[in-house]
Design brief:
The protein has about 550 residues and is α+β, with helices and mostly antiparallel strands. It has helices at about 1-35, 45-60, 65-75, 85-90, 95-105, 105-115, 125-130, 150-165, 175-185, 195-205, 205-210, 220-240, 250-265, 280-285, 285-300, 325-345, 370-385, 405-420, 430-445, 470-485, 510-525, and strands at about 270-275, 310-315, 315-325, 355-365, 390-395, 425, 450-460, 490-495, 500-505, 530-540. The protein has three domains: about 1-230, Hypothetical protein af1432 (Orthogonal Bundle), CATH 1.10.3210.10; about 245-415, Alpha-Beta Plaits, CATH 3.30.70; about 425-540, 2-Layer Sandwich (Alpha-Beta Plaits), CATH 3.30.70.
């Protein structure tokens, strides 16, 4: 009886052990599914990789136990991505070297998470090594050939196939022929050549196609849908935190992802918007005035009547996508936004010189986000070079060629001449002003010219204590008066909190009082506050 009881107890322990193992594996698999469910582009990736890997192993003659262990390893091979920021995993464009180096850490993070899991043989080493290359050029350890665990070599090929065969935020799925060619070309370098032979046969005989179209068991499908719904709800709540509080638009990483996703589903127009002169507004009137202009633009973009996705890129830049819009609709939309913005700010004395520039591109589902973004940005840059406060289509930009270089040079010269758009003096930052001073001084020495350095000082009227806003307004109006009343060959800069410096080129010394008198008369017309009295002194630059 005792022996029977011991056997029964041992049997119960074995059953309990198997049940615990099954539950543990299911929980780990569901964890992996939950991580992937955060992104529609990787959803189901690990399950598909597990199926491909199992099919490869089966055709290599593996045992059922070995195949099941391989599938368990495949389910968890990317678990280390839980430690990589979402904005990098889901970045629409090309990764920087720093971002790619961070992505590569998912292999070692995954190994660290799984190092104590003993119920799945080889799980930690496979997780670490599934991005090693057969020729030793992979990561993280540069293993080569048979140094790489066989399970990792199989998963590496299955993983690459699914990546190429799936749509990504930055590109569409590759064609069957392109995938076949890529795998064939990388046999012996990225992939184990023997495993590659087996895999290409599976592609030839249609086994992979049939596998991809298998229906999930209803229970697994229900669980995956439940996880997906939970994660989607969490994402919706999280993304409400990623709204730019000032404009009401999504922040850059959220907006870019939404736009990149929409671009893969429909044709439309991508628009890169820039608010001109925002820095000038912030510097002169403070950030409250600049914020007011940004808030007005944000509301305009939110109120666009046709379907749109917009985000604030940061600072004075915005990105807008109009799904399914044709050229005429897109042009009308941008024109209306520019005109409505002018109308809103025209009576605001602090923001009235803000303006909008836009670069536009009609794009199709075959265009990548990164390429479209770059082209829209080039169209915007073209507008800013040629007058601002307007829009341009990318395909309307005229690029020069070697047969007509003189025309190109004239266009460049015209752009350089008009891009400053100053009515008076060349107004520079102090650092640039010092360089200009030295340059003019050299010309004076060589040609025996005489130029003058003038300092304008804003003196506070006795017994007054003006606010900082009044000081900034007075300095701004003095800057306008200087630029309007001296020639374009002259140069000025703001020197300190209460002073300007001016280089007057080649005037007669007797003309200087008349020049300064015109400047001060213009200043008093612009400036209401009488808290400041401007004065000046000058010296010859020869001295």
């Amino acid at each position: 009886i005792q022996i029977i009881e011991e056997k029964r107890h041992q049997t119960e322990l074995e059953i309990e052990k198997k049940e615990n193992k099954k539950i543990t594996l299911q929980m780990m698999e569901y964890l992996s599914t939950t991580i992937e469910a955060k992104d529609e582009y990787t959803r189901g990736h690990s399950r598909r990789v597990a199926q491909y890997a199992a099919l490869i192993a089966k055709n290599m003659g593996w045992t059922n136990e070995g195949i099941q262990n391989l599938k368990n390893c495949a389910y968890l091979h990317d678990i280390g991505k839980i430690g990589i920021p979402d904005q990098i995993l889901n970045k629409p464009g090309k990764l920087t070297n720093e971002e790619f180096n961070l992505i590569k850490q998912h292999t070692t993070i995954g190994q660290d998470i799984l190092k104590d899991i003993t119920i799945i043989p080889h799980i930690d080493e496979v997780t670490r090594s599934h991005h090693e290359h057969y020729d030793g050029t992979g990561y993280p350890d540069g293993l080569k050939g048979n140094e790489i665990p066989i399970q990792a070599r199989i998963i590496a090929l299955a993983d690459s196939y699914d990546a190429m065969n799936s749509r990504r935020i930055y590109r569409n799925a590759l064609s069957h022929g392109r995938i076949y060619h890529e795998i064939q070309m990388n046999a012996g370098t990225q992939f184990d050549p023997e495993i590659t032979k087996v895999f290409l046969k599976l592609m030839d005989n249609g086994s992979l196609f049939h596998l991809e179209h298998e229906i999930l068991p209803s229970q697994e499908d229900t669980i995956n849908k439940f996880i997906s719904d939970v994660v989607t709800t969490m994402q919706d709540q999280e993304e409400t935190k990623n709204i730019d509080y000032l404009t009401g638009l999504p922040v850059r990483n959220v907006g870019q992802k939404r736009i990149a996703s929409a671009m893969q589903k429909t044709n439309g127009c991508l628009i890169f918007l820039d608010m001109d002169n925002l820095k000038k507004i912030n510097d002169v009137y403070g950030h409250k005035a600049g914020d007011r202009a940004l808030k007005s633009l944000g509301k305009l973009l939110l109120d666009i009547s046709i379907p749109k996705i917009a985000c604030r890129m940061g600072g004075d830049e915005f990105l807008l996508f109009l799904p399914q819009a044709n050229t005429e609709q897109a042009e009308n939309t941008v024109s209306n936004v520019i005109e409505q913005f002018k109308e809103i700010i025209k009576d605001d004395s602090e923001t009235h010189f803000a303006a909008l520039s836009a670069g536009m591109l009609m794009c199709s589902r075959n265009d990548t986000f990164a390429d479209a973004y770059s082209k829209a940005d080039k169209a915007l840059y073209y507008v800013k070079q040629n007058g601002k406060n307007n829009y341009s289509w990318y395909n309307q930009i005229h690029y020069g060629n070697t047969a007509n270089t003189s025309l190109d040079l004239k266009q460049i010269a015209n752009s350089l001449q008009t891009s400053g758009n100053y009515s008076g003096a060349l107004h520079l930052e102090y650092r640039d002003f010092t360089r200009q001073y030295e340059y003019i001084h050299q010309l004076m020495t060589r040609n025996q010219w005489n130029c003058y350095l003038v300092m304008v000082t804003m003196e506070t009227v006795q017994d007054t204590l003006p606010y900082i806003e009044e000081i900034e307004e007075a300095l701004y109006h003095m800057g306008e008066a200087i630029q309007d009343n001296i020639r374009k060959v002259d140069v000025c800069t703001r020197y300190s909190a209460m002073q300007y410096l001016i280089i007057l080129s080649l005037p007669a010394e007797t003309q200087i009082p008349n020049i300064m008198s015109r400047i001060f008369m213009e200043y008093y017309k612009l400036q209401d506050s009488q808290h400041f009295t401007p004065s000046y002194e000058y010296i010859s630059m020869k001295k």
